[in-house]
Design brief:
heterodimer, A: 291 residues, Rossmann fold, 2 domains, two-stranded antiparallel sheet, elongated, B: 375 residues, alpha/beta, seven-stranded mixed β-sheet, flat, Uncharacterised_CoxE (chain B), vWFA_dom_sf (chain B), VWA containing CoxE family protein (chain B), UCP010256 (chain B), ATPase (chain A)
Chain lengths: 291, 375
């Protein structure tokens, strides 16, 4: 506990260590992370695609000096993918090899660790990321519920394994469906929205490779303008960063400024209909952003 | 801590206030709030607000209500009115945001327009269709389109070998396995998404459609119901009640744009713009109950339907106008969207609609082919 306390003494300290890892967190997110770590509860991050939910988990793991164990969810994911699996082939081979001798086929040798079990065994040195939990189905959510409340797994052949300490767990969701209320209430919750233009410019400047500050600010303004329109896929922060990078590369290759932005549009808007919708206004958006 | 500090009492009071306003706040969340506030100092009101947001986890679409309640409780701010959305955008309402029992409570402040909507529906009486719907409800679970589940179940006979159970059987019977266990991916029902046009031009059919929607929600395994008019409203949770009259009255009270104008295009665009809603359409049987009479241009409707058709397993439009044998899809809007439709069928009566929905699993030629032959 003392190690955790020294890493996260206050929300501001958390925000600072995140900034050291080049992640700009607003006050709400820093507070949520602080509370999740100190209360020993899982952290549930929701938000549109591309606002930095997975990235947040990665920097939290780096901040705590732990290994990030990632569990990507999908429809049909089940216990064998999330908890553990026996290595049946090796077990059968071992039985044959043993012949008359006695052999424990439920030995560690035959146990394949899946993310949840892996975290359970090293709770101090790992951060569990359950990514895009909204993609899994209700059955899996129920399975996870059991794990998240007691941090233990029951293997019928071996008995119950409990974590020695409470591991840090981060869940992310794109909110393509409602999560069970039981899951929400076990977690510390934060909704990550799109940042304001000023903060987004800071993020771009930090994250993009070699982008001038003025470019970062122009990109942030233009992207905010584009997000305000009814698009099928509004650009996320990562797209904005790529756009700033791409435009800078093009500019160095000889395209003048507004032209470089236009030619790099393919990394920002990735939907043909959205492109057609934006095309008439696009020059004006870039002009406004550059002025 | 046997005796709570007065400050803690105040915080717990806020949790109670939230509950009375329809937020789901569990006791463990209240406890987390107290611990969170203690951890944070608290040095300022902002700390308490952040702790409340993080631990009580209000739904993002109810943040406005939450902030207003927070101000009212901690700052004594009397102004409880929720901020209005801008008018040019299609308003979206999600029936899930408020728990079912208290559905009417947080909205009581809006008064007039709402209660009149409930009255209108109350005035419509349904008679003589109970038996049609009952038969439909019984047939529905087995008649809807299915897909192969991604999750496997244990079976006795057909399927792939189940290694895990095989090994246990082998270990138990000392190398002997009389009957290898199997596993198989069963069939599950595809989602059924029903979009009901409740504009003025569909007025005489709305009661039928809601009745149908209630039966579907009660009997289909996975169904989502939305109403579209000038706004988009998700009414699935309101329709879950077993009692038909209660469910319909609740849905009626929840929808705010009865018998208004038609903005199918913008309403569908709003539907597609919300990832959570758009996900309902993926791989689903999408049934649109509308006459397709769009006010203004149909460009937006065309785009929205094209997008819907790329997501949906089957996209069907049921229009009451098709009951007329002289009907041809000749309005500009219908002609434009016809290539995207799998079916364009008669939706004038409950019999026609129920028959069509029960036939969704059977293949049929594309709507365009059928109507080209007809004309």
């Amino acid at each position: 506990m003392s190690r955790i306390e020294s890493i996260a003494p206050s929300p501001e300290a958390v925000a600072e260590s995140l900034a050291e890892q080049r992640y700009v967190a607003d006050e709400g997110l820093a507070t949520a992370i602080f509370l999740a770590i100190r209360l020993g509860k899982p952290l549930l991050l929701e938000g549109a695609p591309g606002v930095g939910k997975t990235e947040a988990a990665k920097v939290i793991a780096r901040m705590l000096g732990s290994e990030l164990v990632r569990l990507q969810c999908y429809e049909g994911i089940d216990a064998a993918h999330a908890l553990y699996e026996w290595n049946y082939q090796r077990q059968l081979l071992a039985i044959r090899q043993a012949g008359e001798h006695e052999i424990d086929i439920y030995d560690d040798r035959f146990l394949i660790e899946r993310p949840l079990l892996k975290v359970l065994r090293k709770p101090d040195a790992s951060v569990l990321l359950v990514d895009e939990i909204d993609r899994s189905d209700h059955e899996f959510e129920a399975l996870l519920l059991e794990f998240l409340s007691d941090f233990q797994i029951t293997i019928p052949e071996r008995g119950t394994l409990a974590a020695a300490a409470r591991p840090v767990v981060i869940l992310t969701s794109n909110r393509t469906r409602d999560l069970a209320e039981a899951l929400r209430r076990r977690c510390v919750y934060h909704w990550i929205g799109y940042p304001d233009a000023e903060r987004e410019a800071r993020i771009i400047a930090l994250r993009a490779g070699d982008v001038a500050e003025a470019t970062a600010r122009a990109v942030a303004r233009a992207v905010r303008d584009i997000r305000a329109r009814p698009l099928a896929k509004p650009p996320g922060i990562s797209e904005a960063i790529e756009w700033a990078n791409a435009a800078t590369v093009l500019e160095k290759g000889g395209s003048p400024w507004p032209e470089a932005f236009r030619r790099a549009i393919g990394v920002l808007v990735k939907d043909e209909e959205d492109l057609a919708y934006l095309a008439p206004d696009f020059d004006k958006i870039v002009e406004d952003a550059l002025s | 801590m046997s005796q709570l500090a007065p400050a803690a009492d105040h915080l717990l009071g806020f949790a109670r206030l939230l509950r009375s306003a329809g937020f789901a706040v569990a006791p463990e969340q209240s406890i987390a709030l107290l611990r969170g506030v203690t951890l944070l100092g608290p040095r300022s009101m902002e700390d308490i607000r952040q702790a409340a947001l993080a631990t009580l986890a209000p739904q993002p679409d109810r943040r406005g209500d939450f902030d207003a309640l927070f101000r009212a409780w901690f700052w004594g701010d009397a102004e409880l009115a929720a901020e209005g959305d801008s008018d040019d955008e299609t308003r979206v309402k999600d029936g899930n945001a408020a728990p079912e029992q208290e559905a009417e409570e947080p909205r009581s402040e809006k008064g007039g327009a709402l209660s009149s909507g409930a009255e209108r529906l109350g005035a419509r009486r349904f008679a003589g269709r109970g038996s049609t719907l009952a038969a439909f409800g019984r047939a529905l679970p087995t008649a809807l389109p299915v897909r192969r589940s991604l999750r496997s179940v244990r079976t006795r006979s057909r399927g792939e070998p189940d290694l895990r159970r095989s090994l246990r059987a082998i270990a138990r019977t000392d190398g002997d396995i009389p009957k290898p266990p199997k596993r198989r991916r069963p069939l599950v029902q595809r989602k059924l998404l029903l979009l009901i046009d409740i504009s003025g031009s569909m007025k005489q059919h709305t009661a039928d459609h809601l009745d149908l929607a209630h039966t579907i929600v009660r009997h289909a395994e996975r169904a989502e119901i939305f109403t579209i008019g000038t706004r988009l409203t998700r009414i699935t949770p309101s329709l879950k009640a077993a009692d038909r009259d209660a469910a319909l009255a609740r849905a009626a009270g929840f929808v705010e744009d009865w018998d208004g104008g038609t903005r199918i295009g913008p309403a569908l665009a709003a539907f597609l713009a919300i990832p959570r809603f758009a996900a309902f359409a993926r791989g689903a049987s999408v049934v649109l109950l509308t006459d397709g009479l769009e006010r203004g241009g149909h460009a937006e409707m065309e785009i929205a339907l094209r997008r819907l058709s790329t997501r949906a397993h089957r996209l069907s439009l049921c229009t009451p106008l098709a009951a007329d044998p002289r009907f041809r899809p000749e309005t500009a809007a219908l002609r434009a969207v016809l290539p995207f439709l799998d079916d364009l069928v008669d939706g004038s009566s409950l019999e026609a609609l129920t028959r069509f929905i029960l036939s969704l699993a059977r293949p049929a030629p594309a709507a365009e082919t059928i109507w080209r032959k007809a004309s």
